[in-house]
Amino acid sequence: MTDVNIESAKRAAGKQAVADHFDPSASHVGIGSGTTIVYVVEAIKESSTNPQIRFVPTGYQSRQVIVQAGLTPIAFDSLPEDTMLDIAFDGADEVDVELNCIKGGGACLFQEKLVAERAKKFICVADYRKKQDRLLTNWPTIPIEVAPISVPTVLHSLRVLGSSNPKLRTTLLEKSGPLKTDQDFFIIDAPFPKLLIAEDIAAGKGKGDGSDGTWEVNKLSEAIKALTGVLEVGIFSGLNGPDADAISGKEGVKTVTSGQKPVAVYFGMSDGSVEVRTAKQ
Ligand SMILES: O=C(CO)[C@H](O)[C@H](O)COP(=O)(O)O
C-alpha cells in the first residue's frame, strides 16, 4: 500500500468524522496531534467559518495546524474551570475492539489526555493500519512521558513489569540525544505482549495483572502510571463519555481517571471507505 493511499484513507476518515460530529455552533473544540488531525481541521475549515469557535490544541504542532488554518486557538489552561469542550478530535496509533487506544506516537500524549478528558465527546480518526482487535498487535510499544531525571528508574521498573526492552526515544536524524516533549520531558517506548481485555480474562487467557506475563489494558495503564517519574502513559482506556459522566455524578463533568476513550473511531480503509467503531452503550 502506497503512502498516497494511506493519506487518502486519513482524509476520508477526517472528513466523515467532521460531517457526523462537528457542530458549527460549538464554542470549544479540542484538536489533537499528528498527521491525520490535519484532515479534520481541513474538513472543519470547509464546513464552518464561525469565528466564535475556540480551538484547544494538544501541543505545539496542533496549535500550528489551528493557526495555519486561520482558526482561533485558546490554551487549555485559559479555559474556565467549569467549561467542557463540546467535542475533541484526535488521531491514534492503535485501537482495540473496546475503543481503548495507544497514543503518543507523536509524543503529545499528556496534553492529548487532558483535552480528551475535558471533552463531552471524544472522537478518533485513523487509517486502517490502526484498526486491530487488541492493543500492541501492530503498534509495538506503549509511549510513556517521564521526567528526565527518572529515566533509569522507570526503565528498570518497566522491565520488572514485563517490558522486554523499553527504550528512551531519541531524535537521531534531527539532533543527537533524547526527544523532548512540549513539557520538556522525555518519552520511553515500552514493548509488552499483546494486551488483554476483560473478556480474555473471563475466557482464561491470562490473569492480566502481570503475574503470569499477561496484562489487561487498564491494569497495565494503572501500573505504569503509578511509577514515580511517569507524567502520563499513552494508553487511553477505562470508561468513555456517557459512562464517565455517570460515575462523576455531575452531568457533563468527567472524573479525572475516566473518559479517556473515544466514543467513536473513524478508520479510513484501503478501498476508500470509512469504517466506524462506536462505544457499546
Ligand atoms: O498520539 C498522537 C501523538 O502523540 C497521534 O494522535 C498519533 O500518533 C497518531 O498520529 P498520526 O495521525 O500521524 O498517525
Automatic annotation (TrEMBL):
Transmembrane segments: none annotated. It catalyses: aldehydo-D-ribose 5-phosphate = D-ribulose 5-phosphate. GO terms for cellular component: cytoplasm. Pathway: Carbohydrate degradation; pentose phosphate pathway; D-ribose 5-phosphate from D-ribulose 5-phosphate (non-oxidative stage): step 1/1. One of its GO terms (molecular function) is ribose-5-phosphate isomerase activity. SUPFAM superfamilies: D-ribose-5-phosphate isomerase (RpiA), lid domain, NagB/RpiA/CoA transferase-like. One of its GO terms (biological process) is D-ribose metabolic process. Pfam families: Rib_5-P_isom_A (PF06026). InterPro entries: NagB/RpiA_transferase-like (IPR037171), Ribose5P_isomerase_type_A (IPR004788). PANTHER family: RIBOSE-5-PHOSPHATE ISOMERASE. Belongs to the ribose 5-phosphate isomerase family. This is Ribose-5-phosphate isomerase. It comes from Trematosphaeria pertusa.
